[in-house]
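Try it yourself: sequence plus zinc ion, in.
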Amino acid sequence: MLGRLVSSVRVCPYYTARNAINQTQMLTQQKVMQMPKRHWAQVGHVIVTPPRVKVSLLEKVLHSTVMFVVWLAPVMWFLSQVKINRLQYSQKMEETLDTITEKLKHSSISPNEQPVPDIVFHDTMNKDLLSKWPRFKNVVPDILLHKTIDFAQHVKEILRMNIKIYQPYLSTNYTKIPSYSIADFKAVQQYFDKNHLPYHTFSIPNEKKLRVTIRGLPKDLNLNELFEKLRSAKIPVKRVHKMKVKSFALEQAPLILAILPYNKEGLNILRVRKILGHDVTLEPPIKKLRQCHRCQKWGHAQRYCHGQLKCVKCAGDHYSTTCSRDRNSSEPPTCANCGGNHTANYRECFYCPDSEEYRQNRVKRLKYKTETPRFPRQLVTWENVDTNLYKRITNIPKHAEAIPF
Ligand SMILES: [Zn+2]
Ligand SMILES: [Zn+2]
Ligand SMILES: [Zn+2]
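Structure, out:
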């Protein structure tokens, strides 16, 4: 018996212990244990030593865990220590370098001492960094007439006013109207406003904003000072503010949002490397899914919306803040987009680009987009106004187009 106990000592401490317990139990209960036969290789070496104790699945799992802790954990710990050491070493080196430069600055041997500028630039623009922002398109924005209106009734009136527009696109939810120039764009808007037609549009090129988040500045940063320093470094910032963040780590090191005009001067901010002695990282802000607070449609902002006023809770024609319904009211909410029993900002509504159904339709939408031949843009004239030219009705599935392409 003792011999068997000793022979069970193997590499695995768990099985060893398990064997020992089992065999002691056998000894005390005076049972004879039927051992499985050993398989001997011809040269006399043991090639298979089956476990002495039947092991359940639970025990196998437990065993693997124990083995992991016993063998792998020390190795991992060792590796992490190496990493920490290396990090500490490089930090130390950096500190030493910093003190050396500091000392050099104050020493008399420095012949041409130069004051460190508040804003330090990279020599060239980093193309990879620049590509993180949407490309600037100097185009006249489209006007999207909301689909309760039949645009065909208004085309001739627009032509009569000598407004130049390109062939519109009719789709399930909108009529997309591209204008020839900014002046025509404004004229169409005026016409729509005068006739109380619901539409939305987007910012015009010289109103476009560049949004940049700045990471790496200290918590006690003075925003006014930052604004002044950026301005004096010829970076035309319009506003800077601290972003509201939930994470504690970010609260310690605030995230700054700078808003600039989207032009050559504004883009200069992407060359900034150091601000007031701090190394900074620049990133585009995380793009939020936009829903219009005025008409509740997805994909545009209230600022450029002239759509039908809709309430997020009851789909009534009033602002959501003035709605009489609240959480306690018995009536179910009504969606302003699909008419369903949910509020219009419900993320699973199939009009919301976040919803599963919308995502699935996106595939069909892209397929449609790639398969439809692209026609050159054509101006609407008196010659072609009565043809079907401006009626490119899209056959893509309903509600797959909450956001126009
Ligand atoms: Zn809107
Ligand atoms: Zn309401
Ligand atoms: Zn809905």
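One thing you can check immediately is this: The longest helix spans residues 57-106.
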